[in-house]
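Morning!

This is the sequence you dropped in the shared folder:
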Amino acid sequence: MLRMLADRGAETGAKALFQAITASPSVVEDPQVMDLAAGVCERLRGEDRFDTALKLASAFRRATPRLALEEALAAFGMGDDARALEAAGSNRELELFLAPVLAVARGGRVPNNPPGAPAMWRGITALARCVAGVREGRSSSALAALRQVPEEAASRLFASEMRLVADILSAQGQKLVSAAIAFAQRSVFWKSSRVANALAQCLAIRYPRFFIDTLAARIPFPPDIKADALLRASVAAAGLDSAEARVSLLIAKLGHAAFPKEQQGLAALYEGFAFCMSDPRRALRSFDRAVELGADLNEALRGRLLVQVKQFDTAMAAGDWAADNGRAAASTALRLHRAMSHSVETLPVAVVAAERAARMLSTDRDRREEALEAVRAARAAAQRAGLLTRSLEADLLFDEAAALRFVEPARALELVEQVIAREPRHHEAWHLRIDLTMDAKGPGASEDWILAAGEMDLCEELTEEAAVIRARRGLPARLVPGKTGAGELARELKRRRDAGAWPAPPAAYDPDVAACREALDAQGRSALDAAAFVLLRERGQDEGGLAIMRLVAAEDDGRGDTWMLLVALAAVLGWEGSVFEIVRASAPAVKQRVAMEAITCYVAESQPAAAKKLVVGIASEVTASVLRALKKQLGVSAPTPGSGLMPEGYRLIAQALQRLAPHFEFPDGVQSAVGRWVGDPEFPVDGSLLPPGLLDELERFLPRALSKFNSLPPDKREAFHREIGRLLAGPVSDEKMRELLSVLAEHGLQPED
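The structure's back. Tokens below.
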């Protein structure tokens, strides 16, 4: 009876076991019940019910090593490291098995694997080292540890999810957004509210402003988790210490009116800080109410300034250069500066307020004199306080340059050069230098500075712009392991192929490309190998193509995804000879699967004769049962777009296209073949794939548009990027194509008639 109830579901099984234990405590000594309980605990953990799993496992008092393991794992999942250590310590073998996990819990060194350790054991050790690397901020060590997880254990240990976690904690800008969105699409996210909450809290605390501005809208967090994380981000952005942050979060949930009247002023102040980023209107009301109730005026001013600066930054990102809230924020900043200038102890706040006012006023052409006056005030206050550091002087010089940009561009450029001399990595100064150079000398000179900035990895935007310019000028790409993606590597391979510098058999890749490839994940390596294979076969460079296949064979993980991708590409492109070579070179364990996928793609591309030739050609190399299966496949109708049954080969091609975009594309035949599946519910569109019609239309004016785009101020460029990212967040329809062109037009990037 207990087993029948357990088969209905883990929760039902747990309730039945608890009732049985209550009715007859001796049942915990029954070996069959112990085994059943351990299985139920394991399923409960898989359903994110660690609390129930821990309670059930504990009821059996660690009677068997498996139940002790379940108790330890459930406790670890609940965050009770002490309980996990205690449970694991009850059995020496169990303690050794969990040693890597327990070492992470203790914050100690992860031990080596014992001789002859099985794959899962080795995987747990590698994963523990990855977690340690992530916790200590060593993303390169974390990624290196992940590469040691055996392929057969990777999926069960969520290795790909851990790679995304490492990316989330080390990436910036669009790469951070991509990693976070990719993680939110994994089952571990939407099946587990604990995981979703952990991701939201992590992002809110580490990247508070970015979370509020971008991530909260782009990631499908449950409403309650999202609301709580927005509060957390708002408090983090306000710069409160840990005790103040806890108070603010508590008051935000209760409201200041819930406190005694004599404490409501201070409570309203904390309430304002809690909402200063996530709900600006409520925050401003709270700060005004705090002043009415007698709270510290200067703290209320500081809160108002945080809110107004946020509103100003949002308006600037949207291209609203004449926004009144910028002037209001500058006025509040100057008011705070004057209030804090009377005491040596508060001079640091006065300096920051004046510099912030100068930064906002410098964007308003009508208030440049006030901006310059704010710069002088900030410099004077900093000198009085002994705070005029090299970095602060660089910021003040930048504010002065920004204020003079349109009236004295030559002087502005001189000041920018001084900023960069003091702070070589001042990325805002680099953007202004590039814009001023564009205005004075044209796009050629500004591109030289973009290339120089790209060498320094100042920011993702300039690094990407530099890569585009390098490709257009035919310059070698700058390859950095761990940073250069599959698409950039494929683009560089094309350049080298066209220049006659690649391939160089017997090696598949040059050493610098090979080093970057090694740092990619399995899907990235597969996409790069496919791009390289196509590049070589396009030019009839068979030796190079064979070198790629030898590399794929050497790294075959038993699943055959790369072989499937290669054979699908070759079939779609009609390269019958390459299809034969790929099928013959594939590992015996996946040969039938690869051949059947080739047949499916041939049939889908209306090439039945090629499919029959393939079967005849490999008949002598496969068993009779495999040959019968292949012949049977010849008579199977290929799935059609809209059926929801995308062939595996096409899915792999689509994945590869997404990993290679926007730097590299397969030949038009591949693009059009995969394009037929756009809009199908199984087609994994993430915005990286654009229909050919849109690309043709964009190509008519992109050369002219690029020049104009480079002249836009940095904030306008970032607004453009965000808007395009929003538009391309899902399947690309005709309506989205029109909307995209409309957005381009709004930014002055209009197609030629």
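Headline: Residues 12 and 666 are 52 Å apart (CA to CA).

More detail when I'm at my desk.
O.
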